[in-house]
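Help needed: design a sequence for this.
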């Protein structure tokens, strides 16, 4: 595979054949998005409602959000899903999807980091 095995994009961006397996990682299905927009939906890998709202309302900054998200992903169910996606990424490309339009402050970039780290082990 020439490019990275784990990509990220907004679920609002059009699907592309280079996306590979499209994995939506949000706690709630995004309004206006068809079920066919993702190959799979993994709720456990989205940030908790409290964490997401605290960040969106400006109560916490990105670094605090980042630390708390990583903390949430330490749960056994989340770790199991991350390991499963890392296994998939060994043989096919996956694209992690979220509703955020800007990846720089979106959990999908953090999730990508966790999947790639798990893939190495």
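Sure. Designed sequence:
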């Amino acid at each position: 595979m020439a490019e990275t095995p784990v990509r990220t994009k907004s679920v609002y961006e059009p699907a592309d054949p280079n996306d590979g397996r499209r994995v939506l990682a949000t706690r709630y299905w995004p309004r206006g998005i068809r079920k066919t927009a993702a190959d799979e939906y993994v709720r456990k890998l989205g940030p908790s409602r409290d964490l997401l709202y605290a960040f969106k309302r400006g109560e916490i900054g990105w670094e605090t959000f980042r630390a708390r998200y990583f903390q949430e992903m330490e749960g056994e169910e989340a770790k199991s899903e991350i390991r499963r996606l890392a296994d998939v990424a060994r043989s096919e490309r996956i694209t992690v999807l979220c509703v955020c339009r800007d990846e720089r402050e979106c959990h999908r970039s953090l999730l990508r980091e966790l999947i790639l780290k798990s893939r190495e082990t």
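Strands lie at 6-10, 21-24, 40-41, 94-98.
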